[in-house]
Amino acid sequence: MTSSPTRQSIAALLAEARERTLALIRPLGDELLNKVYSELLSPLAWDLGHIANFEELWLVQTIGGRAPLHGDLGQYYDAIENPRRERGELPILHDAELQAYMSEVRERTLEVLEEVELGPAVEDPLLREGFVYEMLVAHELQHQETMLQLLQMLDAPYRPAEAEPGRFVPDPIESPGGTVRIEAGRYEIGAPERGFAYDNERPRHTVALASFEIDRTPVTNASYIEFMGETGAEPPMYWERQGQGWASSAMGVTTPVDPMRPVVHVSWHEADAYARWAGKRLPTEFEWEAASPRLEGVGGAWEWTSSDFRAYPGFQVFPYEEYSKVFFGDEYKVLRGSSWATHPHVARPSFRNWDLPQRRQIFAGLRLAEDAS
Ligand SMILES: [Fe+2]
What we know:
Blueprint: H1 7-25, H2 30-34, H3 44-62, H4 95-113, H5 131-151, E1 179-182, E2 185-189, E3 205-209, E4 212-215, H6 221-231, E5 239-242, E6 245-248, E7 255-256, H7 268-277, H8 285-291, E8 302-308, E9 333-336, E10 353-355, E11 364-365, E12 369-371
Helix pairs in contact: 1-5, 3-4, 3-5
The chain binds fe (ii) ion.
Fe (ii) ion binds next to helix 3 and helix 5.
């Protein structure tokens, strides 16, 4: 967003994000919201309370100077203090109390929004051009993707009233194949100074790249099945045998795997093995970003890169260490692009997602690259 957000545009974004959160959980009862499906994911009730608590912390307490509604309840919604595998045991809010907390926080948020000054000249960097509000909207939209990861694990069919066929899978790739050549040179990497972005996307800086070729489209299920057949590699998460072929059992529904869609739910190790089998390699995150205006099929699945999640030169924490800084190092791999579950408002070419190389519950696939001759 290049023009400064206004009170009205912020209120509209907050409302739209919340409506989408509530639409996701509408088909589920309280029992499913409280159920623990996996050590890797929180029960949905935790995500919901955390979304509201994060909003209260930043938009009501920090910006509005108000006291918390539930004393020190916030400690149970701290994502760093409470690992996902323990979140099912925490004394968090449930059911009607949880719903009430979400709406009470929102009421206070809108009250505070009426009091604040926004715009490019405001001194407080949290409020300047509405940064903290953009951050909160992005946070809620990104948690929806995490919630959709958990919804993949439902035993009974997930049936939202407004579901359209194909809404919960990546779009098929029209004509897979072909590569794009990127010439050696210096490329601008990272988010521009203005507009919302996370601290890890800044500062924008120049990176020298050797010439390379990158696939126009991501790896499809058809190609991945060929790889599995030749190497005996494990199928992606949620796949099972169906006759001679494969089916996916995500979201409590078994459907045949569509060969033309990008492969999803593979780990970094599997993506890397695939690339080596194909005689190519994963792109670096800088190669991906430099090539991004010319890539096709972006937005179906996150794309693993060969890069570790590291700080850009001159990185400055903003507004808190636990968003990016604590994850920098060689433990996490960067993913670029976005998935079918990512809201378009939070998808941008400079966005850096990251996860552990063994993870498969995220909506991740891959695209191949190679050095240009
Ligand atoms: Fe969060």
